[in-house]
Amino acid sequence: MKYKKALALIVVLSTAAGFLSACNGPIQETSSTGSDDTQVTKETTATKETNGSEETSESTTQAPAPFEYTEFTARQVADEGEEGSTMVWGWNKEGVDLIAKYSDVGFKKQVSSGAAAYPGLLDRALASGENAPDLFFFGAENAKKYLNMEEVIPLNDLGIAYDEFMSQAFDFVVRSGTDRDGVIKGLSWQACPCCVIYNKEVAKEVLGVEDPEAVAPLFKDWDTFLDTARKVNDASKGEVKIISGTDDVWKFFLNDRSQGWVVGNELNIDPVMEEYINFAKILHDEKLTFNTTQGSSAWTKNMSNHKVLAYFGSMQTLKYSMGFADGSNKTSGEWGVVAAPSSSYLGGTWIASTKYNDMKASSAQIIRDLCINETNLTDMTATGEFVNNKKIMQSLASDPSFENEILGGQNPVPVLISSAEKLDLSTVQETDDPINSAWIASVVAYCEGRVDSIAAAEAAFKASVEDLDIF
């Protein structure tokens, strides 16, 4: 691991993410936190690219550059409340069930009625402190919003030091848990890199190939993807499409940007986004998809009716979105995975502490049990989880006995590790969610002919973002 001491209290984020490597000695500086009179020692942890595993993809995404994390001295902590009173909030049972399974720490839980209601409940509790949780779960879509709040505290304030997890955690997952100053506030037990999940029966019918080794070259880059899409469409006389809807792939372009939406307090349209709008227009005009929306009933139906060759997703997609868990999708065993043309991620849940936490020692142990303990993380892989630990996943990648039943016995880990090692989240920003929605609305308007040019679509997009008044 590489360390160097920061000479200022706040460290400006670099513009890319990377992987951990070997070491410098820390040069220490002591300074006040500003919130009290406690003196803290602050470090930045520089990450370096490592080779992790054998290259298995021709993905166009390049490995990320180094990134500096800001670290404070881990505090000595204790519980101030009653034993077993640690309050944990979530929007579903996944996280709290894992705590119950993997931690001996007693806790109380509050699970909201669903993802839609959860942010409002959590926002009010964080703002007022009234009945606020000690720990709470949050997803990727809300990560920067919560991590940049002063009501959410650093892991160091729970007594957790970065060297407890940094050498093995995937850098894109750790970076997703940082605030705007590079301070790590949230941690996750899972990583959700993406791949192409394709139906082998469909591939054999429309392309004449089915094995991953033969299918992988058909998705090696986005130009080849378009060629493959046309072959699928022509071979099936339009009855089968390469993907269900254009939005299945748009976040892969989003994650390939070199700059975010907001640069110098101005709206920025990265050239990759202009590539995407052209790409989407081709898919629409040539009728290469069914124009479904992710999550819709039509999108879900196409997972089991042999009308769609591929879906782009993570292990979370296999576990929760494709209907295998409840038995509604009868195509288990027909699927395979290959590398996507570029890297992306889909899904993921993080856990963090609020400033109202009076059970810091118990909270720290819960996070360690859930996100750091290698025995627990290894056990999670038995349920198809791609865990946030490079050593564990690299071991599984080379394990000939590790198979996935849905994938007909294929081991997906080598493909997914390659994607994970290239993921760069340097362009992710707190204001992304509404801006992304505005961009997609403009792309759809252009594809459907409601605006007649890319320039007009971009003008409509800029007007929509201006109306949002979010930066």
Write the SSE topology.
Layout: E1 2-5, E2 30-32, E3 39-46, E4 68-72, E5 86-90, H1 94-102, E6 107-111, H2 118-128, E7 135-139, H3 143-147, E8 152-153, H4 171-176, E9 186-187, E10 195-199, H5 200-207, H6 212-215, H7 222-235, H8 250-254, E11 262-263, E12 266-267, H9 271-285, H10 297-301, E13 310-313, H11 315-321, E14 335-338, E15 349-354, H12 360-371, H13 374-380, H14 390-397, H15 413-422, H16 432-447, H17 454-468
Parallel strand pairs: 5-6, 5-7
Antiparallel strand pairs: 1-3, 2-3, 3-4, 7-15, 8-15, 9-15, 10-13, 10-14, 11-12
Helix pairs in contact: 9-16, 16-17
Brief sketch in words of this structure:
The chain is an alpha+beta fold and about 475 residues long. It has helices at about 95-100, 120-130, 145, 170-175, 200-205, 210-215, 220-235, 250-255, 270-285, 295-300, 315-320, 360-370, 375-380, 390-395, 415-420, 430-445, 455-470, and strands at about 1-5, 30, 40-45, 70, 85-90, 105-110, 135-140, 150-155, 185, 195-200, 260-265, 265, 310-315, 335-340, 350-355. The chain folds into two domains: about 1-190 and about 345-405, D-Maltodextrin-Binding Protein, domain 2; about 195-345 and about 425-470, D-Maltodextrin-Binding Protein, domain 2.
Evaluate the radius of gyration: 23 Å
CATH-assigned homologous superfamily of the largest domain: Periplasmic binding protein-like II
Query: Number of helical segments?
Result: 17
Q: Name the CATH architecture of the largest domain.
A: 3-Layer(aba) Sandwich
Fraction of residues in helix: 25-40%
Q: What oligomeric assembly is this protein in?
A: single chain
What is the average per-residue confidence, as pLDDT, rounded to a whole number?
A: 88
Instruction: Tell me the CATH topology of the largest domain.
Output: D-Maltodextrin-Binding Protein, domain 2
Number of strands: 15
